């Protein structure tokens, strides 16, 4: 993490200590990557025109569960 980004994060999150900021950023980053993967799967399925494969539906559902778990963790830390 660059010093500029670190300073922005400290300003943005106010009184959080550095370890909390790092944890928060890490979890938010992971959540965004999972959401992007889920969106890509859904868009690919939509473009296909047929019903998605069961494995695709399961992967989308697993991603949703992981995204929710991260959001719950972030809420619990707040």
What keyword list fits this structure?
single chain, 78 residues, mainly alpha, elongated
Task: Characterise the protein shown here.
The protein is mainly alpha-helical and 78 residues long. The protein has one domain (3-77). The chain has helices at 3-13, 18-48, 54-77. Helix 2 runs antiparallel to helix 3 (54-77). The longest helix has 31 residues, at 18-48. The protein is elongated.
Radius of gyration over C-alpha positions, nearest whole angstrom: 16 Å
**Share in β-strands:** under 5%
Order of helices and strands: HHH
Number of domains: 1
Query: What structural category characterises the helix and strand content?
Result: mainly alpha
Number of helices: 3
Largest sheet: none
Shape: elongated
Please mark out the parts with pLDDT under 50 across 5 or more consecutive residues, or reply none. Answer: none
End-to-end Cα distance, whole Å, is 22 Å
Mean pLDDT: 84
Instruction: Please bin the fraction of helical residues.
Output: over 70%
DSSP summary, beta strand count: 0
């Amino acid at each position: 993490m660059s010093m500029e980004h670190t300073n922005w994060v400290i300003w943005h999150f106010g009184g959080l200590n550095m370890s909390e900021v790092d944890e928060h950023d890490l979890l938010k980053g992971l959540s965004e990557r999972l959401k992007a993967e889920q969106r890509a799967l859904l868009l690919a399925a939509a473009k296909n025109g047929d019903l998605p494969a069961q494995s695709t539906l399961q992967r989308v559902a697993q991603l949703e569960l992981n995204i929710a778990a991260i959001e719950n963790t972030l809420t619990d830390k707040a």
